[in-house]
Amino acid sequence: MNGTLYRLEARRLLRTHTLLALVLVFGIFGAVGPLLSYFMEDFLTLADPRGELAAMDFQLPEMTAVDALGSYVELAAPVGTLVVILVATMALTVDSGPGRAVFYRTRVSGAAEMLLPRFVLPAAAAVLAHLAGSLVAWALASALFEPLSPSVLIGALIGGVFPILAVAVVALMSSLMRNALAVVGASALALMLLSGIGQIPALAEWVPSTLMRGPALLAAGAPVGDLLPAAAVGLVGTALLLFVTVNRSGAREI
Amino acid sequence: MKHEHVITTKGLTRSYGPETGIFDIDLAVPRGRVLGLVGPNGAGKTTLLSILAGMRAPGEGTVSAPEGRVLLCPDVPDFEPWLTAAEVVALSAHMVGEKAGDAEIARALDRVGLAEAADRRNGRFSRGMRQRLGLAAALVCRPEVLILDEPASGLDPQGRVDVLDLITSLRGECTIIVASHLLGDVQRICDDVAVLVRGRLVYQGPVADIADRGRPNAWYLRTHGPVDRLVGLLTAEPWVTRASRVEEDCVHLEAVDADSGELGIPRLLAEHGMPLVSMTGFQEDLESAFLSLTNRTDR
């Protein structure tokens, strides 16, 4: 094994501007989330020029830094994850065409050598984008509302396990099907299902989709330990998914 | 002459249904030569090539492959579209651990006629250019066996000639297996040929031998003056199965076999003092031999 395929993936992220797109998407959500919370009252006033809501005695709760972080999560979790799926699919659907599959498969010693760089680099890019978005959201929330402890960012760091898991899900789907569109659809469906399971109170603590809310949970006063079960499940799940992916892909015939 | 074999298969079978796949293939690929693999659509060429390249597993039988590199160039190679031609070649070399520098990469691109496109991204290359790029990406890896699937199918006439010349020049440098529908190309560049029909190997041997099998047993004869007398003389010969006048000075003649006609026609004309202007075989190439083999198997 040499670093050639890792350099190729780094080049893909830079030359196709996918790293920039990822960081921009998460960064923009990191800015838009707190700004939406901060200007919520103004937006409602603009949307309700005749004061009908006010007449209904509608009371908007006062927004806090925790709400600002939560607003970022609500934007980044679905849309950001979809962008991560798209970026990972670009790298991982190596078998979508026989011409490209033959080019790589006749030159590598095994499926792991071919697939690991295609997992590692997009996953690292997704984590970087998630951290960038969280940092922007934390900084803006601190500036616009009350200052937040930097320890909140530990939640973002642990939350990075979820984008890694999302890329592993794409890897698995790309070993089960060849069509890129089908891989995107199946991956999105699987992660939506996971998110749905995370809504069950008894399981929420163990479901990795909870991790995206890491910064908001820590800002709200939850201990770091609350995130660890989901992080552990996410890491073990990632390892299992990669194991199955490498085996399935190694057995695939072109 | 006896050749050392770089790849051999014994009873190689991979079935996808009663008439689909390959069955009981005993193939021997001579080292350092160019082997043509021909057969009608669906004969199992791609399946056989994929197994030889390690892309598919055999169902039954064995494949004895070399320890060195076996590379397969598909008919439509595909690369990351945002890589330049030089980057594709460099990637190919570095993936297999070849320390190809700029000079080697430039030389590989030059050999396939892509020197001027070295710094262009391959995403907008034509199919022919991608085929050449696939060839350059393979050459730079110094393969022991190079398998080419329809290497000239997407090329313009000049490009085709260039690629065929390149394949010819690789003889001795590595062993080459070429699958092609263009039997003229196979006849031109290959030392040996293997014919697959409905998944079965119906012939394997030197191209010269199979072309010899396809020797014509029908000819057009041109002489000076009217040919009516000649038709009469030919019809009386026991080895002639059919003789008819085509034009004023031309006869179409069919014999029981090639040898009878090749010996009998000049003898008969000489005996009767009739000058021979030309004698053209009705079928005289690999194509006719191929059709004869495939039709015989189809029956």
Automatic annotation (TrEMBL), chain A:
<keyword id="KW-1133">Transmembrane helix</keyword>
<keyword id="KW-0812">Transmembrane</keyword>
<keyword id="KW-0472">Membrane</keyword>
<feature type="transmembrane region" description="Helical">
    <location>
        <begin position="227"/>
        <end position="246"/>
    </location>
</feature>
<feature type="transmembrane region" description="Helical">
    <location>
        <begin position="152"/>
        <end position="173"/>
    </location>
</feature>
<protein>
    <submittedName>
        <fullName>ABC transporter</fullName>
    </submittedName>
</protein>
<feature type="transmembrane region" description="Helical">
    <location>
        <begin position="75"/>
        <end position="94"/>
    </location>
</feature>
<feature type="transmembrane region" description="Helical">
    <location>
        <begin position="180"/>
        <end position="207"/>
    </location>
</feature>
<feature type="transmembrane region" description="Helical">
    <location>
        <begin position="20"/>
        <end position="40"/>
    </location>
</feature>
<feature type="transmembrane region" description="Helical">
    <location>
        <begin position="115"/>
        <end position="140"/>
    </location>
</feature>
From TrEMBL, chain B:
<dbReference type="InterPro" id="IPR027417">
    <property type="entry name" value="P-loop_NTPase"/>
</dbReference>
<dbReference type="Pfam" id="PF00005">
    <property type="entry name" value="ABC_tran"/>
</dbReference>
<dbReference type="GO" id="GO:0005524">
    <property type="term" value="F:ATP binding"/>
</dbReference>
<dbReference type="InterPro" id="IPR003593">
    <property type="entry name" value="AAA+_ATPase"/>
</dbReference>
<keyword id="KW-0813">Transport</keyword>
<feature type="domain" description="ABC transporter">
    <location>
        <begin position="7"/>
        <end position="223"/>
    </location>
</feature>
<protein>
    <submittedName>
        <fullName>ABC transporter ATP-binding protein</fullName>
    </submittedName>
</protein>
<comment type="similarity">
    <text>Belongs to the ABC transporter superfamily.</text>
</comment>
<dbReference type="InterPro" id="IPR003439">
    <property type="entry name" value="ABC_transporter-like_ATP-bd"/>
</dbReference>
<keyword id="KW-0067">ATP-binding</keyword>
<keyword id="KW-0547">Nucleotide-binding</keyword>
